[in-house]
UniProtKB/TrEMBL annotation, chain A:
This is Centromere protein X. Belongs to the CENP-X/MHF2 family. One of its GO terms (biological process) is replication fork processing. It is found in: Nucleus. Keywords: DNA damage, DNA repair, DNA-binding, Nucleus. Gene3D superfamilies: 1.20.5.4980, 6.10.130.30. Its main location: nucleus. The keyword Ion transport does not apply. GO terms for cellular component: FANCM-MHF complex; Fanconi anaemia nuclear complex. SUPFAM superfamilies: Histone-fold. GO terms for molecular function: DNA binding; protein heterodimerization activity. It comes from the Eukaryota.
Automatic annotation (TrEMBL), chain B:
Residues 96-122 are annotated as: Disordered. Pfam families: CENP-S. InterPro entries: CENP-S/Mhf1, Histone-fold. PANTHER family: CENTROMERE PROTEIN S, CORTISTATIN. This is Centromere protein S. The keyword Nuclease does not apply. CDD domains: HFD_CENP-S (cd22919). Gene3D superfamilies: Histone, subunit A. The lineage of its organism: Eukaryota, Metazoa, Chordata, Craniata, Vertebrata.
């Protein structure tokens, strides 16, 4: 059996590398579990391609929410993005997705 | 059983929260405008609930196509409301397909010897 500690160390260093590479996103497994738990029928499955695409879509959703909130904060001349800024952009965000 | 399911949901929520936090932190660094913890929590919660909507849509689309497996075509339909997003997702899908074709080509050489071995065994 492989040493789990060594494995963890490897995955940790890979993660650190990814952090530098600006590649932040949702994990495929997380997306699969997230979506599968909301399916009404048990037999519905998610293909690998679909999971990767949904991870991308969710990332865009979060980035869009963040950027729009930032813009709102900017227009109100605030240094920190606060909940009121997000509240203002939320309706249009939900209409766009 | 339901306690178990509750815990899984909580863990999933935590995973979403973590990724949203990192995405927001990166964006805050890039634009010199930090996000408050409340905003990160709110975006995470919204994304989590939006997932539920996406999942139900995906399931309905797959079922309409008489499939039980959600495919990338269904994801493209989920992104139909905004033109830019739909184009972006279509390009991503093409990219993924291209990557897989390249991988297959790369593995084809390696696999060939193994395949002939298996064939002779059969």
């Amino acid at each position: 059996m492989a040493n789990p500690y060594a494995e963890r160390q490897i995955s940790h260093s890979v993660e650190n590398m990814a952090e530098k590479d600006a590649e932040i996103g949702f994990k495929k497994e997380t997306v699969i579990k997230l979506l599968s738990s909301s399916f009404k029928e048990d037999k519905t499955r998610l293909s690998g391609d679909a999971a990767l695409l949904m991870a991308e879509l969710l990332k865009v959703f979060v980035q869009e929410a963040a950027v729009r909130s930032q813009k709102q904060a900017e227009s109100e001349d605030c240094d920190q993005v606060d909940i009121e800024h997000f509240e203002k952009i939320l309706p249009q965000l939900l209409l766009d997705f | 059983m339901s306690v178990d399911k509750d815990e899984t949901q909580q863990r999933l929520k935590a995973a979403v929260h973590y990724t949203v936090g990192r995405l927001c932190q990166r964006m805050g660094e890039d634009h010199r405008r930090e996000f408050s913890r409340q905003v990160i929590a709110a975006i995470a919660e919204t994304a989590f609930r939006q997932c539920d909507v996406f999942a139900k849509d995906l399931e309905a689309f797959a079922r309409h196509a008489k499939r039980s497996t959600v495919s990338s075509e269904d994801v493209k339909l989920v992104a139909r409301r905004s033109t830019a997003l739909s184009i972006y997702i279509q390009n991503k899908s093409e990219e993924l397909n291209q990557e897989q074709r390249d991988l297959k080509k790369k593995n084809a050489g390696k696999r060939k010897s193994r395949d002939t071995e298996e064939e002779s065994r059969e």
